[in-house]
């Protein structure tokens, strides 16, 4: 529940802020008549995200046991790569995102309402498609799908509410700290998804050491227990974890968190 809440909150607020920036710019520049085209693009992005989530779930359910292991493992690797890239992308571009979006709108307006709808679709679909893929792979790491679904719904509701309040200037949020903190949380969740991907490829026989466990605590903690499900969905903990899973999990956390939290280089100007 916690992991899906964090994913939905972070990605949902990113999308809400992007939509807020686009809407505010059109209103500010006296182009309210183009808002329907903007919302059409946003709606299409939402539909595409839901379609991807449905496709992933349906495909996974229809595959054989071995095919499902390959599908789940491969999509988990893709999700980790995409989320890692997006976290660093947002860290680099957050400050100039508003000006970048304004420039894209000005360019799109040359082509009319359809071009604006396409621009809105591209600007918002990135977060939606990423969320669908990451949520799917995160669901695979936990058996408590009901609580994970509740976390997803609550996270989306809170993110949309915050987005509206920020647009209306009813609430002030330190977005830099928010995205830094949630970025760290997403990296931790991604490490767990990566560990799960390693496990699936070990089950396929494509990676070594599936039975070389660093720990096996199933005798006193059931994989389906509330605690095990909570830990699996948040930090990727598994009651049976191989050495390879643990090494890759720890290496990813150390390298990615180290790079993410590394202070930005100060540019020294000379006169």
Automatic annotation (TrEMBL):
GO terms for molecular function: ferrous iron transmembrane transporter activity. Pfam families: FTR1. It is found in: Membrane. This is Unannotated protein. InterPro entries: FTR1/Fip1/EfeU (IPR004923). The keyword Membrane applies. It is a multi-pass membrane protein. The lineage of its organism: unclassified sequences, metagenomes, ecological metagenomes. GO terms for cellular component: high-affinity iron permease complex. Its main location: membrane. The chain crosses the membrane at residues 6-27, 34-58, 70-89, 101-124, 144-166, 178-198, 243-261. The keyword Ubl conjugation does not apply. Belongs to the oxidase-dependent Fe transporter (OFeT) (TC 9.A.10.1) family. Keywords: Membrane, Transmembrane, Transmembrane helix.
């Amino acid at each position: 529940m916690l992991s899906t809440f964090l994913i939905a909150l972070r990605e949902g607020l990113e999308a809400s802020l992007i939509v807020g920036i686009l809407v505010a710019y059109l209103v500010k520049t006296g182009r309210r008549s183009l808002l329907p085209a903007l919302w059409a693009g946003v709606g299409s992005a939402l539909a595409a995200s839901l379609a991807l989530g449905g496709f992933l779930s349906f495909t996974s359910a229809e595959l054989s046991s071995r095919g499902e292991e390959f599908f789940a493992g491969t999509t988990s690797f893709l999700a980790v790569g995409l989320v890692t890239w997006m976290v660093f992308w947002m860290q680099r571009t957050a400050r100039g995102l508003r000006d970048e979006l304004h420039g894209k709108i000005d360019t799109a307006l040359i082509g009319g309402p359809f071009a604006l709808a396409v621009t809105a679709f591209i600007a918002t679909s990135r977060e939606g498609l990423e969320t669908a893929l990451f949520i799917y792979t995160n669901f695979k790491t936990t058996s408590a799908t009901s609580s994970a679904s509740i976390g997803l719904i609550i996270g989306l509701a809170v993110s949309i509410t915050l987005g509206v309040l920020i647009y209306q200037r009813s609430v002030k949020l330190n977005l830099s700290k928010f995205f830094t903190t949630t970025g760290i949380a997403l990296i931790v969740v991604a490490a767990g998804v990566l560990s799960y991907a390693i496990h699936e490829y070990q089950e396929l026989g494509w990676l070594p050491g599936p039975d070389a466990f660093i720990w096996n605590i199933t005798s006193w903690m059931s994989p389906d227990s509330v605690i095990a499900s909570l830990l699996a969905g948040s930090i990727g903990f598994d009651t049976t974890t191989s050495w390879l899973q643990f090494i890759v999990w720890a290496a990813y956390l150390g390298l990615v968190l180290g790079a993410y939290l590394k202070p930005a280089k100060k540019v020294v100007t000379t006169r």
